[in-house]
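User: Could you write out the 3D structure of this protein bound to CO-5-methoxybenzimidazolylcobamide? I've included everything you need below.
Assistant: Certainly. Input first, then the structure.
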Amino acid sequence: MAIRDLITKEFIFFDGAMGTMLQQRGLKTGEIPETYNILHPEIIKEIHEEYIEAGANIITTNTFGANELKLKNTGYSVEEIVTNAVKIAKGAKGEKYVALDIGPIGQMLEPIGTLNFERAYEIIKRQVVAGVKAGCDVILIETISDLYEAKAAIIAAKENSDLPVFCTMTFEEDGRTFTGTDPITMVTLLEGLGVDALGVNCSLGPGELLPIVEEILKYSSIPVMVQPNAGLPKIIDGKTVYNISEEEFSNHVQTMAEKGACILGGCCGTNEKFIKKVVSKLNYKTPKALENKEYTSVCSPSKTVILGNGVKVIGERINPTGKKKFKEALKNNNIDYILTEAINQMEAGADILDVNVGLPEINETEMMVRVIKEIQSIINLPLQIDSSSPEVIEAAARIYNGKAIINSVNGKDQIMKEVFPIAKKYGACVVGLTLDDSGIPSKAEDRFKIAEKIVSTAKEYGIKKENILIDCLVLTASAQQEEVMETLKAVRLVKEKLGVKTLLGVSNVSFGLPNRELLNQTFLSMALVQGLDAPILNPNNKAIMDVIKSFKVLANIDKEAKEYIEVNSNVEVKQEVQTTNKGDLKDIIIKGIKEEATQITKELLKTNDSLTIVDNYLIPALDVVGGKFERGEIFLPQLIQSAETVKNSFAVIKEKELLENKKGVSKGKIILATVKGDIHDIGKNIVKVILENYGFQIIDLGKDVPIEKVVKTAQEEDVKLVGLSALMTTTVKSMEETIKSLKENNVQCETIVGGAVLNPEYAKMINADYYAKDAQEAVQIAKKVFNIV
Ligand code: B1M
């Protein structure tokens, strides 16, 4: 039976771990497991056969890290390793399918890292092409923690093969992936991209995974796959050990299967006994039938918005139409202007942002791609790609990280033919305007007919009606007064008869009339009563947002009027806070607007000294960001953006300090390093600039510095003072070991330590000679060590 059919009818059993099995068979630390496909094919074959014997239907090739980056120094090509791996798996005795295993690339994608989306795609494409050529049956993309990487991998798999694609991601204890994706967001994107099965692997032990699996099952309409570890990994004597028995493991997997997971296997620490036990408990049973979960959702990497669940506001401000300043910003590549519009709308309560950058004088495709990437690096609201050009839409839908809304198609066949395949491929929602070759019908019934045609044509392209949003089009009361009510009637018809979500551009209604705000508010209330799900409007207009808030109370959406009461108490105080924050460097860092930070820092430096800016703006801003990160209000990408913004600001400070630093005789040589395992270097860099400013010569070893490097440099350079920085509880240990190693190697130097996790007591405990709270204290200590008065 074809795998695609099989997974909807029977339990499918995958194999268990490969890496830990290889370690037991002699794989040493530092050895690349994939080289075994060439050097020890018999070992790999033996492992496959043990799993087949245990009852696995699908075995996974030994190609987890078989990408060109990881294989670079092995002397083998991706093609050699992958071809051999598939050959070995296919040659293993017994009945089975072979899954081509694709693990993470090993480098982070932009904006967290430096790898761009298309480069990631090319790396994975090479693995896929080789695997398909060698004859694998399924493509398994697994242990992915970055949703963007999952998207690149899935597109690479689907564009270069017709095979079933399964994708599983890895979650942390807080229920999100390392980059902040929660289960519903994973389901929203992966299902949209058309994978055949999705789920979770590795991460935690099976017990800890259960709530994540339940959440995935709640939203997924396609088969769910689970491959847990053999318990929570623990490091004992430098080795990773897994702590649960086959019995316990299989009990948990059975529970997951009873709840609906249907593709089951194991990850780290499991072996053939674990798989055998799972198979023995579930073989010959049938999985729960799949059900289509009919909801409409869009997402960014860390936030999913469900439409139809209360009113969702689509912010309309990123659009040059009728906006002189916006047009100027586009022409001048002033991305910060656009980012500020995005931030303001988010803060004003928008749920989704429309992005339109169409201007004849600019390259719309390039600008759209750039603006989407920039917005996504600082804001986690889902976006609506708004363009009349299919080329722009395709480029944007491809690089967008998440499930977007495409704005728009209409009842004309040509536009549907061009846009629906894009929406299907990238799994986007599409706005359908109720107009066709004859224009906008006056009567509600005729607009409804166009909506029907859009929904049924979408179906022919494989797009579910949940992914269509109908816009019944708002006409101006000044010119087409009798049609205002027709629009509202059409909204009700679409909602009730088609069961499709609706959106409307509200402010058109008042065009050409005085006191537009009042008409907009009244029209919005009327539309909401008809069932409008998503108004497109200016969220910065408080009066119109207030209509939504009060509607939510009256329509029993805002239960016990909690939200309403919260926003309507202490209104004056809140407004005051907002105005004082505007344009403040601290605020800009928190929001992550890089270019603006440079400008404002230059301004501030005219009236403030460098350390005042560091102490009053940079550090407090990062403290706020750190707190938000800890509470799960923002995720790694946003944290990085704020850090990058601080770097821009600090670059200006550094330039000024260096200009003023009168170069003369060095007052002493000091080594500075952020310790092994720690990549936080903002604080260390500040200390460096200030020490240099006081005439000390700094040997900056950078961040994540190996202990040996510190020791060797201190010896070779005959340095009297070594400064170490650490920001994490976990890396204080490295600091301690670095100091220990300096002492053991008899390096004649003193040590000074700093960083937010340290205090004088800790410093003493790890045998540091000095502790410095900040850069100024570091200077005082350096003066003391070098006897400078
Ligand atoms: Co991360 N991070 N971060 N981070 N980060 C913290 C430290 C954290 C407290 C945030 C939180 O959860 N609240 C938390 C650590 C928790 C803990 O262990 N207690 C944390 C975490 C968990 C992580 C990651 C693990 C997140 C993840 O990937 N899941 C990851 C770590 C990766 C790694 O290191 N292996 C990570 C990554 C990052 C970014 C890359 C995004 C970015 C760093 C960018 C960079 O440095 N190039 C980042 C940032 C920016 C932060 C926060 C928000 C700010 C740190 C900072 O720069 N502060 C931070 C939360 C916070 O501190 N509020 C956080 C400003 C800086 C000027 O202060 O470094 O203390 P500080 O330096 C001061 C003084 O301490 C002193 O002088 C400086 C000036 O006054 N000082 C010295 C410092 N070193 C000195 C040396 C001296 C003398 C004085 O003599 C030698």
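The domain at 575-659 is CATH 1.10.1240.10 (Methyltransferase, Methionine Synthase (B12-binding Domains); Chain A, domain 1).
User: Perfect, thank you.
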